[in-house]
Amino acid sequence: MDTRATVDDEVTRISEIIDHCRSMEGPMLPILHKVQEEFGFIPEATKQIIANALNLSRAEVHGVVSFYHDFRARPAGRHVLKLCRAEACQSMGGEPLADRIKARLGIDWHETTPDGAVTLEPVYCLGLCAQAPAAMLDGEVYARLDDDCLPDMLAEVRI
Known about the structure:
Radius of gyration: 18 Å
Structural class: alpha+beta
Largest sheet: 5 strands, mixed
Keywords: 2Fe-2S, Iron, Iron-sulfur, Metal-binding
Number of domains: 2
Number of helices: 7
CATH architecture of the largest domain: 3-Layer(aba) Sandwich
Helix content: 40-55%
Distance between the termini: 29 Å
InterPro entries: NADP_DH_HndA-like, NuoE-like, NuoE_N, Thioredoxin-like_sf
CATH topology of the largest domain: Glutaredoxin
Shape: elongated
Family: Belongs to the complex I 24 kDa subunit family.
Cofactor: [2Fe-2S] cluster
Strand content: 5-15%
Order of helices and strands: HHHHEHHEEEEH
Pfam families: 2Fe-2S_thioredx
């Protein structure tokens, strides 16, 4: 495969995304969301392209990417498991539950299992405080998590 063609295709697609979003008020976030939607993460080289297009520094774009937890610097696994880290979930046993999940998967926050099956991410509220602790797996929310439901949930992400 010609890597130059792949890079040119990526730059072309990024330029199309920028052109589509440039006229929006505050275009950086929509651009970054569309880039991540397209590529699954924010490629490092994209930061300079966006900065040039918006007349910003690369550091300003990097600051936004690193500030928001939803943006990734590397591709996610086939499944993304987000565990709520908010106070309600923590008060209902979310912290020890998160520790058990991390131990079973053998990864920490913002890491992907070596087989590429799952990426583990913290999220700071899923709006299920009355049903804590909560998680989101590939966009589907799970409430009242406990040790009884862990094996099924973790088996699902290992597929």
